[in-house]
Write a structure and sequence with these properties.
about 450 residues; Rossmann fold; Dna Ligase, domain 1; 8-stranded mixed beta sheet; 4-stranded parallel beta sheet; about 25% strand
Length: about 450
């Protein structure tokens, strides 16, 4: 088969070599996939997959790891930088209700667990950070199984060998963090049993994926118990999940679920009291919710925060994070210019996007370029009354994928979900849509899943 003509530009020489290779000439999929692995990726990532893997050079991985750690360091420093070390004042500033702050900040945790997924676009010059989901309740942790599944295709296996490609095991990194957290809490070094725990009302939806994760963690020597909060009880100084004693709770439940109403808050207090009495750590702590809030990202562009940066910190924010601000009436500093924020947004509709400060899947997101002046004005009015941020729009460079229908290449827009576990880059969960319908990339919009490989040597 003749290789399709490569479009211009293709991002990266490695991608260009792939698209010109035997592996890159058609949609990639093994003829007889491992059924257990196929089940894992279908349960965890649904059954829509990009037609090729994506690639990073070693230098890109090293820079991405440094940058993501730098942003997390800045986020974790916000209470000290802006609120005299008062976490409750910080919680209020990011929009938590007093009841939410009370639950999120108990028991005291010196520093939230460093686990999360950064959602990024690549604009052709580098990655730009859209949001940072700092939490253990993450989708896409099974992505390394997709890497392994694709390597069952001999064409990709040959290409990976020729180029010296590898991939991090995201779930392996999580397993190491689980062990480290349990050891720091005094685990005796024997069998480690972990509860993969969601809120009781959300568990019917997440149970299939959680069961896949439990099986995969078993391959790392961790006994994982899929369960929900309704299956938890305390007996003889131990926490029992679905009848089995556990040493650590890996949290899928969210602060919003725990504080949805008074009954939920009461149940949350019961659970957290029991975890404390039995010395069972929670990964990640609920306090992480404060830093996942998009208002926290907006604070990194706040003029009070900018004044505290050294040259390296300021350069990081300006390079990686598009200008982001909390949407509210009145003056604001926008890239060094003092201006009325609502009027600025009105004038710059096509360059901005509105997002709820806390939310998932792009729900409530409004791209200025996708609406009329009147619709944008109405959206600003509604958003200024609630909890929204406004962010500079990032225009990602299209990525070209084999098109099975045309035997050519078609442009897609890809959201890179880069995992940070501990202080290490731990792989990427990619979601993509055709370029002509990629304003908001989410599974609700039928995005396709993908994975990334990285070069182990310098370019």
């Amino acid at each position: 088969m003749t290789a399709p003509a490569l479009p211009s530009p293709v991002r990266g020489a490695l991608t260009g070599r792939y698209l010109g290779s035997a592996a890159g000439r058609s949609a990639l999929w093994p003829e007889n996939p491992d059924q257990h692995r196929l089940h894992a990726v279908r349960e965890g990532l649904e059954d829509r997959f990009l037609t090729r893997p994506f690639f990073l050079q070693k230098e890109e991985v090293d820079l991405l790891e440094r940058d993501l750690n730098g942003i997390v360091d800045l986020l974790f420093s916000l209470p000290e930088r802006l609120f005299d070390g008062d976490p409750h004042a910080f919680a209020s500033a990011v929009g938590l209700r007093p009841e939410q702050a009370r639950i999120a900040l108990r028991p005291p945790v010196r520093e939230p667990g460093r686990i999360g997924r950064a959602d990024l676009y690549h604009d052709g010059t580098g990655f730009r950070l859209l949001e940072f989901n700092l939490s253990s309740a993450l989708g896409g942790l099974e992505t390394a199984e997709l890497n392994r599944l694709l390597l069952e295709d001999p064409k990709l296996a040959d290409f990976a060998t020729e180029e010296g490609l590898a991939f991090p095991d995201s779930l392996g990194a999580v397993a190491r963090l689980i062990r480290e957290t349990a050891d720091n809490a005094g685990h005796d070094g024997g069998t480690l049993r972990v509860a993969l725990m969601d809120w009781h009302t959300g568990y019917p939806k997440t149970e299939p994926e959680i069961r896949v994760l439990a099986r995969l963690l078993g391959e790392h020597g961790i006994e994982a118990v899929p369960c929900h909060t309704g299956q938890v009880r305390e007996a003889d100084g131990r926490i029992l999940a679905d009848g089995r004693p556990v040493d650590l709770v890996y949290r899928f439940f969210t602060l919003g679920e725990l504080t949805a109403d008074s009954a939920s808050s009461a149940r949350a207090d019961e659970l957290l009291d029991a975890f404390t009495r039995c010395d069972v750590p929670v990964l990640s702590p609920l306090s992480t919710s404060l830093y996942s809030n998009k208002r926290a990202l907006a604070m990194l562009w706040d003029d009070r925060c900018l004044s505290t940066y050294d040259a390296t910190e300021r350069a990081l924010v300006e390079r990686l994070l598009p200008w982001t601000g909390e949407l509210r009436p009145g003056p604001a500093l926008v890239r060094g210019e003092r201006t009325d924020l609502i009027a600025y947004c009105e004038r710059n509709r096509s360059r901005l996007v509105l997002k709820p400060s806390h939310g998932l899947g792009g729900v409530g997101t409004v791209l200025g370029r996708g609406v009329s002046d009147g619709e944008w004005s109405d959206a600003l009015d509604r958003a200024s009354e609630g909890r929204y941020i406004v962010q500079e729009l990032v225009t990602p460079q299209p990525e070209y994928c084999p098109d099975p229908e045309t035997n050519g290449l078609s442009p897609w827009i890809v959201n890179w979900g880069a995992f940070l576990v501990g202080r290490r880059y731990a792989g990427a969960f990619l979601r993509g849509l055709p370029a002509d319908r990629a304003d908001v990339i989410s599974y609700d919009n039928k995005a396709h899943a993908g994975c990334a490989f990285q070069a182990t040597g310098s370019a």
